[in-house]
Amino acid sequence: MTTSLAGDMPNQPPRLVMKSITKQYPGCLANDAVDLEIAGGEIHALLGENGAGKSTLMKIIYGVVKPDSGEVYWEGERVQIKDPAHARRLGVGMVFQHFSLFETLTITENIALALGDEAGDLKALADKIRTVSERYGMALNPDRHVHSLSVGERQRVEIVRCLVQDIKLLILDEPTSVLTPQEVDTLFITLRRLAEEGCSILFISHKLNEVKALCHHATILRGGRLSGDCIPAQESPASMARMMVGDETPITMDYEKVLGSDVFLQVRGLTRISEDPFGVDLKGIDLDVHAGEIVGIAGVAGNGQEELLAALSGEDTVENHDAIHFPCGPVGHLCPEKRRRKGLAFVPEERLGRGAVPDMSLKENALLTGFLTGLVSKRGMIDHQGTESFAQKIINQFKVKTPGSETHAKSLSGGNLQKFIIGREIMQKPQLLIAAHPTWGVDIGAATAIHQALIELRNQGAAILVVSEDIDELFLISDRLCAICDGELSPLKPTPETSLEEVGQWMTGVFDTATHANSTS
Amino acid sequence: MLVKLEPRGQHSRKMAYLSPVLAGVLTLITSGIFFFLQGLDPIHALKTMLYTPISDTYGLAEWCVKAAPILLCAIGLAVVFKAQVWNIGAEGQLLIGGLLASSVAVNVIEAEGIWVLPAILLAGVIGGALWALLAAWLKTHFNANEILTTIMLNYIALNLLVFSVHGPLKDPNGFNFPESAMFGDASLMPVLIEDTRVHAGILFALFAVAAIWVLLSRSFMGFQIKVLGLDHSAARLAGFKSKRLVWVTMLISGGLAGLAGAGEVTGPLGQLVPQISPGYGYAAIIVAFLGRLHPVGILLASLLMALIYMGGEMAQIELNMPVAITGLFQGLLLFYLLACDVLINFRVTLPWLSSQKTTAEQVN
Amino acid sequence: MDIDLITNVLYAMIRTGTPLLIVALGEMVCEKSGVLNLGQEGMMLMGAVIGFIATLLSGNVWLGFICAMLAGVLMSQLFAVIALGLSANQVATGLALTIFGTGLSAFIGSDYVGKPIDGLGVIAIPVLSDIPIIGKMLFAQDLIVYFSFGLFAAVYWFFRSSRTGLVVKAVGENPHAANAIGLPVMRTRYLAVAFGGAMAGLAGGYLSLAYTPLWAENMTAGRGWIALALVVFATWRAERVLLGAYLFGLASILHLVAQGLGFAVSPNLLAMLPYIATILVLVMLSRNSGRSKLYTPASLGKPFHASS
């Protein structure tokens, strides 16, 4: 398959050539003289860390962003892609990382909107959607509303939306980060099929194993510049990782797996009906987290993680007080402040707009959850000096890069802000730390620092619960693992005793993996 | 596009202070042009509106009389607006405060003693606070939008007031005018400067400004209010009790507006009439925004707003303009402020300027 | 209650509900696109005063209605430039529009208070208007009432079956996604705001040209705000806006009923009824926030700046 490229059509110009693309944002050079060339029928990987400039380059191809300088050639002709509509007319389709779908509309309506006047009759379009989706093994019922679809199904809608048109280049932005391992396999089959039919694919990712398995060619960006160009099949994941992060950053670490001591967090039969019509109900969750261990919960987004976390943090209280137990007694009815007084710390998924107030300074954000550490007098007045030194301590100890504690939270990079938030929680010496997606969107250096901080806290005897969509991360740091699917929790197993396949099955709701394996064999 | 907005990374503190000043200047220029189009000398007209009313001692004293209720309402709004609770009901809370204070006052016309006035003022505070808490209760218990409920409560308050002066509170010896009896001497606010109407209400207002300043900048309660307003989910995460904060902020804001109403009936008016307020409660909204929700800013903005009220009356007498010119000025000022505030978060660039440059470069 | 009273109450209910229906349908379209314009009251007042003056000067009531709509559109574009073009806070900008419109209309109209004009006449449709009870209510009204029936049908169809309606809904739910797939977010929003302005102007004009017909300061008496509550009550569905508008119409004319039945209640107390009804409606409806979330335009009131 890899040999079927260029050779077949010697006179054909490459599908897309970008020469010396530069794009400057205020305070950041997103693309610095980047070159890219994609042939017809080629699966091309665009690799890089967060902030390396992948998204900008991709938006330039799709006409969302205009480059400051540089040239774009489409099938040999110089073009200036004005807007997404123009890109679509050329035959460029795009699958966004944060899906651009409308929850309250049906699949057909969603696709009709993107097609514009070409959509034609909705009934005919629905038939076409059905045919196309079946042909590529992504069955969809076009009449369903998007809000009733799983994340994987939503991605199919995005892909089908591109395929109902004549498509010559399909761009996928981090498509696998939201899928189960099994769904990833299915997606790759579809993509290979498309490529065989002559469609070029630009696959944006930072997952090296996937790139190696799927892509013919890879372009690697670092800090807005081209840092490498390779054929993944001939490289090792480690060598590609070096091109991504440079020579200075330590890449992988192996952490010792341990057994915890006494149970700190005990959840028994936690059931809660969601108030949100789009939410997930929690169904009889049982979970123990011991002091001195890290428990990981895997799962595809939207399977009850948010609801479980809200119930554990106290943002949502539960009627059955006994459902959630700390060593001091039942806490299910307590508000977040009271649970914090009993040893809880919490790192939410949203950094800006929950973990930290975007328009407040780091100092004020230190006070946000740090107020229990004696920063407020009995008469309700703030100890401004104490708050300042608390903020400084977090900044120093967790190496947060910032001009100072008066800087607004929103002007920090994702990784730095996350280090600040995790630092703020850890500095309060919690006995139980719950962290949601602690390293999403964070560069590898910061992610390593965060992982080390969690391990250190564990070694000091704290119970830690990590909820993440990144299975690799969970295997790296968790001592025990389980998965959540549709508000139910899978069995909890020590990490060394489970496997990627088993967790993948848990994520799709197949909890009884032993019998399942028997019955299929 | 002629102009283009580029987001600034961090919001500009300088612009936050500069924008109200800029808005004031633009309002002046616009109204100057407006007067010119009306066939008036703009300088003379503006002077008549903005300087003549305060050019003597009596005028300065009147300035304080007008500023006191606006300041009381606006400083209370600073607290609720910080929490992003949109209490548009200062007007109604002021009216109910005046109404309740009056219903106490008409029953103690003959009474003497220093307890009389505090009792009346307290009734006003309670009236305003209860009216605001009604909206707070509707919001926290029934999730009813407070903008709409407070506006509806304004209309209801106005009708209640009109009903009262036509009915239960009407002066039996008042020749059937819709007014209450004149209050007793012990019920009236002490006058601060002789031969003027300036009364103790302005002192209450200044005290409120200082107290709110401490609340917002030093206390943990103030911090919680600010967090709730800026980021609801963060407040939830930290375990701040948002319902209680809504109640507290509405209580403060309603109580102060009620005090403003009580101050009007026991101060310059001396009785209950249907027109207690020429829209002070609405003007206070503009003042709160114009003053950046900061106590000092609000103090200055209240003075400006009081001056606009006096200028409107002066324009009616001297320039033969309808008194509605006050509302026009207020609206203009708020619009310009909102437009200028864009500069806080965005940098304005002129793309046609730079694109000309790039084409020139390409030619070269 | 005799038949005449019922007939007249139903007739008056429609007449009183019509301005509410028109302005609420306009605001609904605007909110569906994700824009919350609290300036309805200000736009209505401007429509009322401009329409009145135009009619008085020209002697042509239709010119008056056209000017009323134009005034509403101009006011709405003032809002749009600041709230959409400059991404200012929509709540504050809408409030500013109401304060500005109230002041400006009082200023412009100060010479015209109490002047008489020939209002819009009633056109009774032969035969149909003779049907007992509902004949007068549905078929002996003025042209604007008939127009409002058509407007309702058009808005209903627009969101149910038209592609443009789909675009408006999409822009209101997720402007970033809409922008990413190339829908004209800003243009859609400007137009939706303009439509809302035109309808608010028309509704204001209806008050000063047909309903009263005269001009008085602040004559809309909170109808713009009630219309905003109506849209919430109707959970952004046209058929429920229609129902709500007429229910409010009925609440506003209860004093007629009271008089007809021989009750003597203070007019000031009865005048509170529509406002109390508004609060009750908000309470009943907002209680179940989960259900209404299914219909609320998800990006309502949030500024959108296509920064990328």
Care to describe what's here?
The complex is a heterotrimer of chains A (521), B (364) and C (308). With 521 residues, chain A is of the alpha/beta class. Helices cover 33% and strands 22% of the residues of chain A. Chain A has 3 domains: 2-245, Rossmann fold; 258-343 and 431-521, Rossmann fold (3-Layer(aba) Sandwich), CATH 3.40.50.300; 350-429, no CATH class. Chain A has helices spanning 54-61, 84-90, 107-115, 122-135, 151-163, 181-196, 208-214, 237-245, 305-313, 336-341, 362-370, 384-397, 414-426, 444-459, 471-477, 500-507, 513-520, and strands spanning 16-25, 28-38, 43-47, 69-74, 77-79, 92-95, 169-173, 200-205, 217-222, 225-230, 263-272, 282-290, 294-298, 324-326, 329-330, 344-347, 432-436, 463-467, 480-485, 488-489, 493-494. In chain A, the strands form 4 sheets. In chain A, strands 13, 16, 17, 18, 19, 20 and 21 form a 7-stranded mixed sheet that branches. Chain A has a 6-stranded mixed sheet with strand order 6-7-8-3-9-10, with helices on both faces. In chain A, α3 (107-115) packs across α4 (122-135), α3 (107-115) packs parallel to α5 and α11 (362-370) crosses α12 (384-397). The two termini of chain A are 31 Å apart. By secondary structure, chain B is mostly helical. Chain B has 2 domains: 1-45 and 319-350, no CATH class; 62-292, no CATH class. Chain B contains 14 helices and 2 strands. Chain B is globular, with a radius of gyration of 23 Å. Chain C is mainly alpha-helical. Chain C has a single domain, classed as ABC transporter involved in vitamin B12 uptake, BtuC. Chain C contains 15 helices and 2 strands. Chain C has a two-stranded antiparallel sheet with strand order 1-2. Classes of the chains: A alpha/beta (521), B mainly alpha (364), C mainly alpha (308). At the B-C interface, α6, α11 and α13 of B face α4, α10 and α14 of C.
Q: Which features does this protein show?
A:
heterotrimer; A: 521 residues; Rossmann fold; 3 domains; seven-stranded mixed β-sheet; six-stranded mixed β-sheet; disordered N terminus; B: 364 residues; disordered C terminus; transmembrane (chain B); transmembrane transporter activity (chain B); cell membrane (chain B); ABC_transp_permease (chain B); ABC transporter permease (chain B)
